[in-house]
Amino acid sequence: MNSVHFTSHTGEHAVVITRVAETHWHALEDDRVVGRGETSRRPDGRLFLSIDSWHGAVFDRLAEVMLADLPKPLYTVVDEADLELTSHWQRAGFTVRRREWEYLVPTDPLITGLGSAPVPPGVTIVPAGAAIEGPLSTLDREIRDEVDAAVGWQEMPAEVLVRPAGDTAPDPAKYAVAAASGRYLGLVRVVQVTRLPRIGLIAVKAAQQRRGIARALLAHVLGSLHRSGIETASAEVNESNEAATALFDGIGARRASSNLELVNR
Fold first, then answer.
1. Which of 43, 51, 138, 235 gives 199 a disulfide partner, CB atoms 3.0 to 4.6 angstroms apart?
2. Is 60 exceeded by the pLDDT of residue 265?
3. CA 66 from chain center: how many Å?
């Protein structure tokens, strides 16, 4: 692998940047690792970068070398509160592409006001684990096609991934579903990816939207969590998704933090 030398303010020795593997770079000073860079490719094809270093000069040089080695566009995600890290990426030529709010969502229906949320006429809620895999896969594929034709899956939270071609088999244990006349109309995905259950996706087929189905699905899963003794869930919402932000703001969810997705074109 190729190496690049430069002198930084980390000490007396030159720092050597080396691409040690296809997706990994190391910054070495006197045979000691003082910085690491890594790339990962999302299933939607986009390439994301991460850099870990103690010194700004090392970060800048790692970014410079990685950018020279890789095809654009390139992406990264930062905690918006981390001003220093955000500044490093901006010095490397990255700009803000979107903001994603991290919500803390109460489950108590007395707080959310969802205890009296009606299920639309003719619609039933199928609890997590009870959905039939075949119809659930069909709904998953139809919703993905609709989203891809509209805003695209690059606008979805990182954990809501595009599936490899031909793979449309979501885990029924993670999904509650709205159904009517033998067909599935909408779904909500709840997973335990942190210490809090995460509402990863709420989606309703385009022709069935504005009927209160998403609100009924949310009422169902939050009510189930509350009855299990869980007081708070989490959710990530794209700032530009006005319907989703209105839904969560309207039930007393609190914006706890935000992430920025940055791009270098």
1. 235
2. yes
3. 24
